[in-house]
């Protein structure tokens, strides 16, 4: 088919120039037709890789550009008897103005976010139907409009699916296209650990989309002049007045410095851990020896490490311990305790 296109364009160019200027310059039409066919094939390859919004924007821009070019050259064609000048002006105007229309249309089409437009349209209709509702309901709809922009790390982490199942998250989850591309890149990694994490992230995202308690939308918005995904997330949040959902501490700090609100899953997990005070008694399984002499180590249900003094003789047993202190670190929380006196007596009896 491509060979036929090149042949047809070349012959057509030859015949057109032959009818206009005769046999002397007909070879110019042949070369022009050949070049036009090659450019059309190159343009076809680019269109196949481009999103639909860019193709539509380019097509509309090209049509408008050609219409403007013909309107500008029409008076010249009426009042000019020089056929060479007329043809040159016609071709130059159509090429230049048509190219400008195509370029501007593709750029504006890339900036157009169709999913956001549809979402705003649906929300506008919903708000019209609820115009007689109370003020609190309208405020909830406005807050949901901003949305939560999901980071790659929080998808791979997987806890977001369980949080969505509880119904605590309000509003819609926005997954940018560049986050999906990063997930796919990780899932295709030659490293088996990274590949497993990437596939887990895709499975988690599929689970969230199937959850009817939360709305998930894919945003095609991208920033080609920004390379880092974290910087793109911050830029998208600033532009759409959204919030970022992540568990990346560095992204959290950068986003807050840029004035973007952040919801951190790790901070939520820390806040949900039960409060433990010195002097409290708890029953715990001693799993292994500690680093220090005669120490034992156990864990709470949320994974918090409990260091127990004088618990080496209680390995593999459930014992009562008394909390002595709690240490909060950047990596989590550690609880220090000692064996309760009754447990000691049971060992030595």
What does the secondary structure layout of this molecule look like, with pairings?
Elements: H1 2-21, H2 26-49, H3 52-79, H4 83-111, H5 114-129, H6 135-146, E1 148-150, H7 152-157, H8 159-166, E2 172-176, H9 177-187, H10 192-210, E3 215-219, H11 229-240, E4 243-246, H12 249-257, E5 262-264, H13 265-272, E6 281-285, E7 288-289, E8 296-299, E9 305-309, E10 318-329, E11 332-339, H14 341-348
Parallel strand pairs: 1-2, 1-4, 2-3, 4-5, 9-11
Antiparallel strand pairs: 6-10, 7-8, 8-9, 10-11
Helix pairs in contact: 1-2, 3-4, 8-10, 9-10
Write structural notes for this entry.
With 349 residues, the chain is of the alpha/beta class. The chain has three domains: 2-111, no CATH class; 141-271, Rossmann fold, CATH 3.40.50.1010; 274-348, OB fold (Dihydrolipoamide Acetyltransferase, E2P) (Beta Barrel), CATH 2.40.50.140. The chain has 14 helices and eleven strands. It has helices spanning 2-21, 26-49, 52-79, 83-111, 114-129, 135-146, 152-157, 159-166, 177-187, 192-210, 229-240, 249-257, 265-272, 341-348; strands at 148-150, 172-176, 215-219, 243-246, 262-264, 281-285, 288-289, 296-299, 305-309, 318-329, 332-339. Helix 9 (177-187) packs across helix 10 (192-210). It is elongated, with a radius of gyration of 33 Å. The relative contact order is 0.06. Mean pLDDT is 77; it is low at 133-145.
The fold-level CATH name of the largest domain is: Rossmann fold
The count of β-strands is 11
Number of individual domains = 3
Helix percent reads 55-70%
Structural class: alpha/beta
Q: Give the rounded overall mean pLDDT.
A: 77
Strand content is: 15-25%
The profile of the biggest β sheet is: 6 strands, mixed
- Biggest sheet strand order reads 6-10-11-9-8-7
CATH classification, class level of the largest domain: Alpha Beta
For CATH, the homologous superfamily of the largest domain is named as 5'-nuclease
Shape: elongated
